[in-house]
Design brief:
It is a single chain. By secondary structure, the protein is α/β, with parallel strands linked by helices. Helices cover 32% and strands 23% of the residues. The chain contains 25 helices and 37 strands. The strands form nine sheets. Strands 15-16-14-17-18-13-19 form a seven-stranded parallel sheet, with helices on both faces. It has a six-stranded mixed sheet with strand order 5-2-1-4-3-6. Strand 15, helix 13 and strand 16 form a beta-alpha-beta unit. Helix 1 (77-90) crosses helix 14 and helix 23 runs antiparallel to helix 24. The protein is globular, with a radius of gyration of 31 Å.
Length: 834
């Protein structure tokens, strides 16, 4: 029996629940779970998503669903189930979890339109005065417009007071979806060519307009098909009036067809055949393929492909995708960074031409909308991209790949639900009963721990692959090289991981070397440049200096909105806040004591580049960090470096991920200590991962390679383990510390962060929340404790003061009050406590 009711999650923050509506006759049977609908809610018209068709409503008097936004469901049944999992796992609102899966522009939140009323209102505080002045200047404004004009203010509370006093009027508005299909208009003949020609005058009596219209007819007759209208205008030198006249006379007709916006449409990919597998790869593939078989049981347990850098993990991803495609299913391939997406898309498009789609936040809303719709229709079978690609509505999804599963960029840290794509991918795979394939050379310790416990199946690749014999022979011929690798099985050749030299910078200081470059690194750079090879210099810090201070009184330049040290950047000679973007000039005098000894301290990537160019004037250097990536696309930077238009690539974490550059024979880590001593439980793990990953960029070609790791803490276990490429040693040591302190994976964390406009208010509210949490913990007879309340490491960001309190328990969610008071945000399983 078809239910005449719908349970709808309303897209109207801060409304969190679902509500029951009845379906008009014309929508009964057509409105299913997953449909995007328009419904009344109080005095407003709002969007919502149908989550169920209940047999009986929860209330007696129901209001009607007004319309469908899209005739087809926008979410699949599996996505609806995943949204409920996200809601439970992250204590988030259901509508936030549902709209996470929709392309931008399709889902619209209801808003309010504010304007001055006829009655004059006297402002009772500065916020009311600013709001009244804004509306007097700009007229009626929507809430989101006011939010942008009056950031970091409690303007909504002021607006409520003004509405009640009659100074403002407010009405509900719901915008149309911001994206829609793009249609291309074409023209074709509506009659036989002879009939069209005979209907047009010919000869000396022919006017210019008639001549143009005849050219249109001749063009369409010659083409024998519909022609894009812009091409008709250009080729026949015709006008819109000419085409309209021919339409009115029944000689031609306008046809509209959809013009897909495809970001890959103008790219050419050369199809490639899969190479033969090494013995290690073959053994790994046997385990993976067994779980991809249609009859496989327990496929959704997940596989951790734990392979050293360069061990051939990507080829196994490609094989796995080919396998599911052969069964008529589709696949999602997640990469941690947008900058890595182009090279991944190329590899998959070369193997699966015409079947691959691209999805990430830098595409236009129209491109994302069309890619989303093509996934829904089955036109795309493989989607590649960062976090958002996981929610592509692929038909018959059979595989989820999460490359570099350890990477923190998979964590959504700014808006709810604050989920981790790795964990969400595993949950989605369980819902669909398909394989989730996680890959990393340095797995997240929580993932590795789960593999040790049998929750995830671990498959190892312990040998680095240099390349296949024919490719290597061609490369050796081009470079006039003698082979430096050792034979492996099959058609591939193997190579050892690069040796790592640890340089104690304390010794360098005692020897009088105050340069950024140790003597070993300087000598190695000289050898690389003399040999016409390439090097990567890694420093996980942007800018020229980490902070600016006065040597007379100790004053430090800090952000006016964040109170964090400003970073000095050349050549603009500006100080920049890397959190909120605040900038100011480099001061000539100390604003505190008037002294002139204002100096920069520390080093960033700009300073490394300046010192490199000073020491090696002939060296061609490229810098790749978030400053340069905003100006020049990552693919362009990498293309220049791959073509050897530069000798040295200087960068931050971007250079540590997924690069395969055979001419790079040296990786220099300028400072391995950056981030090692931060007050965060993952500081050592983060350091080990990035050092191991960046070391893996060296020696990936016939020339071999080496790594020089500069540090002031050479004895630290994370440094030592990274130097030996020894994940097991690091894991044992770090997990011992985690077990003793009760940190993940032995307990889970719930981080509550408060943002407040005043320092005193932040402290007061944070302590109040701490008391609430202590009472809730005391009521339950399970082990749990609190960290804090304390100010956050970044105590002030974008003018807000920040305090945090962390709940530590086997499951911290039951201790968190719901809903949270205004100003608080919740992050379950945070990857950082900074």
């Amino acid at each position: 029996m078809t239910s005449p009711f719908a349970e709808v999650a309303i897209n109207l923050p801060p409304v969190r629940g679902t509500f029951h509506y009845h379906l008009p006759i014309e929508l009964t049977g057509r409105t299913l779970p997953g449909h995007l609908v328009i419904v009344p809610f109080g005095p407003r018209r709002v969007q919502g998503i149908v989550v169920a068709n209940p047999v009986e409503p929860a209330v007696q008097d129901t209001r009607p669903v007004e319309a469908l936004v899209d005739p087809d469901p926008v979410l699949t049944p599996a996505q609806l189930e995943l949204a409920h999992w996200l809601q439970r796992e992250h204590s988030a609102s259901l509508i936030d979890c549902l709209t996470l899966m929709l392309p931008p522009g399709l889902s619209q939140q209801a808003d309010s339109l504010y304007r001055l009323s006829g009655e004059a209102a006297t402002p009772q505080n500065s916020t009311e005065g600013r709001l009244l002045s804004l509306l007097a200047l700009r007229g009626a404004l929507r809430g989101r417009q006011i939010e942008r004009a009056l950031p970091r203010t409690s303007w909504r509370r002021a607006a409520d007071h003004l509405v009640r006093r009659g100074g403002l009027s407010r009405e509900s508005v719901l915008a149309q979806p911001g994206v829609r299909p793009r249609l291309a208009r074409s023209v074709r003949l509506a009659v036989a060519p002879e009939g069209a020609r005979s209907a047009l005058p010919v000869g000396q009596g022919e006017s210019q307009a008639a001549a143009r219209r005849r050219r249109v007819v001749e063009l369409l007759a010659a083409e024998g098909r519909a022609v894009e209208i812009a091409w008709v205008y250009a080729e026949a030198r015709a006008t819109a009036a000419d085409v309209r006249s021919l339409v009115e006379r029944g000689m031609v007709e306008i046809v509209e067809r959809e013009n897909w916006r495809d970001p890959l449409a103008d790219l050419d990919f050369v199809p490639s055949d899969p190479p033969s597998l090494t013995r290690d790869q073959s053994l790994a593939w046997a385990e993976i393929s067994a779980r991809l078989a249609p009859s496989a049981s327990g496929a959704s347990t997940g596989i951790l492909l734990h392979g050293v850098t360069g061990s051939g993990k990507t080829e196994l991803y490609l094989r796995a995708v080919a396998e599911v495609l052969s069964h008529g299913k589709s696949a999602v391939v997640l990469v941690p960074e947008i900058s890595l997406t182009p090279q991944t898309v190329r590899r998959f498009s070369e193997r699966f031409p015409g079947l691959v789609g691209l999805m990430h936040s830098r595409l236009s809303p129209g491109e994302r909308f069309d890619t989303w719709r093509r996934c829904r229709t089955g036109a795309i079978r493989v989607v590649v991209g960062p976090r958002s690609a996981l929610f592509a509505p692929l038909a018959d999804l059979g595989l989820i790949v999460v490359d570099e599963e350890h990477d923190e960029s998979y964590k959504e840290a700014t808006s709810p639900p604050r989920h981790h794509s790795r964990d969400t991918a595993l949950a989605y795979a369980r819902i669909l009963d398909v394989l989730c394939l996680l890959g990393s050379a340095t797995p997240d310790l929580v993932t590795s721990y789960r593999a040790d416990r049998g929750e995830i199946h671990r498959v190892r690749l312990d040998r680095r692959i240099l390349g296949h014999q024919q490719r290597l022979a061609d490369q050796a011929g081009r470079l006039h090289l003698t082979r430096r690798y050792r034979p492996s099985e099959g058609q591939a050749e193997a190579i050892d991981l690069p040796p790592v030299e640890v340089v104690d910078m304390r010794v360098e200081l005692r020897a009088g070397n105050r340069s950024l470059f140790s003597r070993s690194l300087t000598q190695a750079l000289t050898q690389v440049l003399d040999s016409n090879q390439q090097a990567i210099l890694f420093l996980n810090r942007r800018g020229t200096a980490t902070h600016v201070f006065c040597r007379d009184c100790g004053w430090t330049a800090t952000c006016a909105r964040c109170e964090n040290p400003l970073t000095f950047h050349r050549p603009a000679d500006r100080l920049l806040c890397h959190h909120c973007g605040y900038t100011r000039k480099m001061p000539e005098r100390c604003p505190q004591c008037g002294g002139v000894r204002v100096r920069q301290f520390g080093a960033g990537t700009q300073q490394v580049q300046a010192e490199l160019e000073a020491r090696f004037p002939a060296a061609r250097a490229l810098r790749w960090d978030r400053d340069t990536a905003a100006v020049e696309e990552a693919s362009t930077l990498l293309a220049h470096f791959s073509a050897h238009r530069a000798d040295v690539l200087i960068g931050t974490q971007m250079v540590a991920k997924g690069l395969d550059l055979p001419l790079v024979t040296l990786v220099g880590v300028v400072s391995a200590d950056t981030g090692l001593n931060l007050p965060d439980y993952r500081a050592a793990e983060r350091t080990f991962q990035v050092l191991t990953q960046v070391a893996g960029r060296a020696g990936r070609g016939l020339l071999g390679g080496r790594v020089i790791l500069q540090t002031y803490q050479p004895e630290h276990f994370a440094i030592q383990a990274a130097a030996r490429h020894d994940f097991e040693a690091f894991s044992v040591e770090e997990l011992g510390h985690r077990r003793a302190l009760g940190y993940p994976p032995y307990r889970r964390l719930a981080r509550l962060v408060l943002q407040h406009t005043s320092s005193e208010g932040a402290e007061r509210e944070a302590k109040r929340m701490g008391n609430v949490l202590r009472v809730r913990i005391a009521r339950q007879d399970v082990p749990a404790d609190l960290i804090g309340p304390v100010p956050c490491f970044y105590g002030r960001l974008r003018s807000f003061y920040r305090w945090q309190v962390v709940v530590r328990a086997a499951d911290p969610r039951p201790f968190v009050p719901e809903p949270l008071p205004e100003g608080w945000s919740l992050d379950i399983d945070p990857v950082s406590l900074l």
